[in-house]
Amino acid sequence: MYSERAGGSSIDYPLGGSRVLVDALVRAIEKFGGRVERRARVARFLPTHDGTGVAGVILAGRPGERVGTVVARRGVVSNASAWDTQDLLRASSLAGPGGERVLAPPQAAWAAERSATPMTGSFLHLHAGLRNDDGALDHLIRSKSIHALCVESWDRPLDDDRNVVNVSIPTALDPSAAPPGRFAAHVYTAANESFTNWEGLEEGTPAYEALKTERCGPLWRALAFATGLDEANVRSRAEVALVASPLTHRRFLNRSRGTYGPAISAARGNGAWPGPKTPVKGLWQCGDSCQPGIGVPAAAGSGLMLANTAVGLGTHLVWLDELERLRAM
């Protein structure tokens, strides 16, 4: 992938920011009778009466969040990570006939396999709002230089600690991404930030803030490289500088250890991407812990695979006829 980037390939950017993708998905869900709930954190699955399957979800009800139970009509789809889905199962008291907490053998084998899925590292993010009242960054607009990929050293492995840094400057294509005379930039390390660097720290403490400052050095250097300015100049232009750590990922994205997702590799032969079915009655899965893997397009593809699997052939044929009708209009 890095070779292709060096060869002049491009990465698409949605005008209006990633929010427009979210809004489009919400419109589609609501169009077909669905409802999107915010601040509705799932604490555990609701077991069936016989304790052998999943009948819905129980919401955590933290301060400011919804509390209650959502009962499923057909089943529950988890797009949480492999590890977080198993944590929800363990908290759900799926029980045997005697009331003991136990999974049936096929379920237990599947749970053990999923829990043992190799895990990628996390991210370190820098969201910067840069002053451009003197036009020093206008050349990015002229050249449409929205993305850059910076390698600290080609003598080190590409997945080494903070060796590869990605830079996205959406204002180069989309002026609405920042106020007039300002530029928005997103700089991040991709799945190579170890959670162990942050383990035991508490967000907001002096030690946590100091580590964020120390770890962000390569990110500022990458932003300087992408803008063509020296690092001191870039730092002086930053009116906003927000740093997100693996703890941020864990807190806001409900990701175990802030991980980007499974580190399954066909080259290493260290596992296989599962499909949407699970051996737990009433439980389906999609998301970046399923085939075809990590990333927004792949995670969306897993949802398509789930829909194709869950919907019967008759419905497929009806939809194909409808598509043919629309195509002929």
Cα-atom radius of gyration? 23 Å
Q: pLDDT under 50 segments (min length 5)?
A: none
C-alpha termini separation: 40 Å
- The number of distinct helices, counting runs of at least 4 residues, comes to 11
- Give the DSSP E fraction (strand runs of 2 or more residues): 15-25%
The description of the largest β-sheet is: 5 strands, antiparallel
Quaternary structure of the protein:
single chain
Shape: globular
**SSE class:** alpha+beta
Mean pLDDT: 89
Number of domains: 2
Summed up:
This protein is α+β, with helices and mostly antiparallel strands.
Overview of the structural elements:
The chain has 329 residues and is of the alpha+beta class. The protein has 2 domains: 37-118 and 268-328, no CATH class; 120-258, no CATH class. 34% of the residues lie in helices and 19% in strands. It has 11 helices and 10 strands. The chain has helices at residues 2-6, 19-31, 82-90, 105-115, 138-143, 206-215, 217-227, 231-237, 246-253, 296-310, 313-328; strands at 42-47, 54-60, 67-71, 76-78, 122-131, 147-151, 164-168, 182-193, 238-244, 283-285. A 5-stranded antiparallel sheet has the order 6-7-8-5-9. Helix 7 crosses helix 8. The longest helix is centred in the last third of the chain and has 16 residues, at 313-328. The radius of gyration is 23 Å and the shape is globular. The model has no long low-confidence stretch (mean pLDDT 89).
Features:
34% helix; 11 helices; 19% strand; 5-stranded antiparallel sheet; 2 domains; 329 residues; alpha+beta; 3-stranded antiparallel sheet; single chain; globular; 10 strands
